[in-house]
Write a structure and sequence with these properties.
CATH architecture: Roll
Shape: globular
Number of helices: 4
Radius of gyration: 15 Å
Distance between the termini: 42 Å
Number of domains: 1
Structural class: alpha+beta
Helix content: 25-40%
Largest sheet: 6 strands, mixed
Strand content: 35-45%
CATH topology: Nuclear Transport Factor 2, Chain: A
Number of strands: 6
């Protein structure tokens, strides 16, 4: 296993453990976060705020994680199934009533100096909306 694969797996292990501080420790100070169908956010503070928002609105686990790394170790991708529960209504989305959902997702990473410098996440938002009854 390469250092980059270890880094990405550590990121997802921290996510699974609910260890947001550990997740943030794996990020570069100026991390770029491309939110699915949203604007780019920059910096650890913005990422921490995003995580807090997600924890308030959703309870999620990832299944079937596959991590892929390019030959240089500067890029990686992950594919997984998100299984979750919609806990609190998120702005502009259907009302939350504890609905459960499962959908495939992917993430792309840039790695620099042993830290995650970019996280880009993609999933099918219309499929999620159908699952939660929107």
């Amino acid at each position: 296993m390469t250092e980059t694969e270890r880094l990405i797996r550590a990121y997802y292990a921290a996510f699974a453990a609910g260890d947001r501080a550990r997740m943030l420790a794996l990020l570069a100070e100026d991390v770029a976060h491309d939110v699915n169908q949203g604007a780019r956010q920059t910096g650890k503070a913005a990422f921490a705020a995003f995580l807090a928002h997600m924890d308030r609105c959703y309870r999620e686990v990832l299944r079937e994680l596959v991590v892929m790394v390019d030959a240089s170790g500067s890029r990686a991708a992950a594919e997984f199934i998100v299984e979750g529960e919609y806990l609190a209504t998120d702005a502009g989305l259907p009302e939350a009533r504890g609905q459960r959902y499962a959908l495939p997702a992917g993430a792309f990473f840039a790695v620099k100096d042993g830290k995650i410098a970019r996280v880009t996440v993609y999933y099918n938002l219309p499929a999620w909306i159908r699952q939660v009854g929107g």
